[in-house]
Design goal:
By secondary structure, this protein is α+β, with helices and mostly antiparallel strands. It is about 30% helix and about 30% strand. The longest helix has 18 residues, at about 230-245. The chain starts with a helix and ends in a 9-residue tail after the last helix. The relative contact order is 0.13.
Length: about 300
């Protein structure tokens, strides 16, 4: 059903709506070292200059109509009641991915929506009710646990049922400090070898990204662990080259100016790339890449 297809895309719709948008990351909610993790703190983002700008943008008619349908579907206001989104994966296939959406849900409403899908049903796993359904476009079942403060969804009953486990050990790569509105981690990145745009990271053992805004200043840090000093040095040089190339974009001077806001350093097997820029300047650079609609002829 159309509504169920939308439900399956909830975490991705949420992420798209906020473009870099989740309540502070609860590291006990996720496995200690997921292969991939992407966490967005909507509550923290709303307090920033960037977040306020994004809310202004999504309030425009072109996007707002879609988000109104999203609100109606899940019965909460994304502008104040969507608190966070955590997406992680235990492996590299679609079945391994789990999304935790932290929001002020009305469980009965969401459960009724789930039961309106194809072949709905439910099981009890570890004393948790796990709902399942399928859609006309995707006959493989989807699974969800529904609570008043969050919904866990994915394509694996095993992984959905294991989310928010009290047995999870905190990961050394994740942090709840400094109020980052975005966190991401990844390891075993050799699968990126076939992706030319991400080739820089294919030699990394693990990588971590955090971004925070303070006094309308965005500070983002990318930390990458390489297998040895030599590889770390070469990766940092490639990163510096990419930043230098950004500075040569004469057609986008505002974007080119961001090159001076980056710094790359290497120490042993670790290298870091930091971005420190006024949020207003970052938004101006993004706007410079946005194609303008042609004015209608008189």
């Amino acid at each position: 059903m159309r509504s169920m297809a939308t439900l399956c895309l909830v975490p991705f719709l949420a992420a798209t709506a906020f473009s870099l948008a989740a309540a502070p990351l609860n590291i006990a909610d996720v496995p200690p070292d997921p292969v991939l993790l992407f966490h967005l703190d909507c509550d923290a983002l709303r307090q920033t200059y960037i977040g306020k700008y994004l809310l202004y943008e999504v309030s425009k008619p072109a996007l707002h109509s879609n988000l109104v349908a999203f609100e109606s579907l899940l019965s909460f206001d994304y502008r104040s009641q969507l608190h966070g989104v955590t997406v992680y994966s235990e492996g590299l296939s679609a079945v391994d991915k789990v999304a935790i959406i932290y929001a002020d849900f009305v469980p009965d409403h969401v459960i009724a929506l789930v039961k309106s899908g194809n072949a709905p049903g439910q099981t009890t796993v570890n004393n948790r009710v796990v709902y399942h359904w399928s859609t006309a476009g995707d006959p493989s079942p989807s699974y969800a646990i529904v609570r008043s403060n969050c919904m866990i969804t994915g394509k694996s009953e095993k992984y959905v049922a294991a989310a928010l486990s009290t047995d999870n050990e905190p990961s050394r790569k994740l942090s709840t400090g400094n109020d980052p509105f975005i966190q991401a981690t990844a390891h075993n990145l050799d699968f990126l070898a076939s992706q030319s745009y991400a080739g820089l990271f294919k030699f990394a053992k693990w990588a971590k990204l955090q971004a925070v805004e303070t006094n309308e200043q965005l500070n983002a840090v990318l930390t990458v662990e390489a297998p040895d000093d030599y590889t770390a040095k070469q990766m940092s040089l490639v990163a510096q080259g990419m930043i230098a190339q950004l500075g040569l974009q004469k057609d986008h001077p505002q974007a080119a100016s961001l090159a001076t806001a980056f710094a790359v350093k290497q120490a042993g097997t670790t290298w870091t790339a930091t971005l420190s820029v006024a949020s207003q300047d970052l938004i101006a650079a993004i706007k410079s890449y946005t194609p303008k609609k042609p004015k209608p002829e008189p």
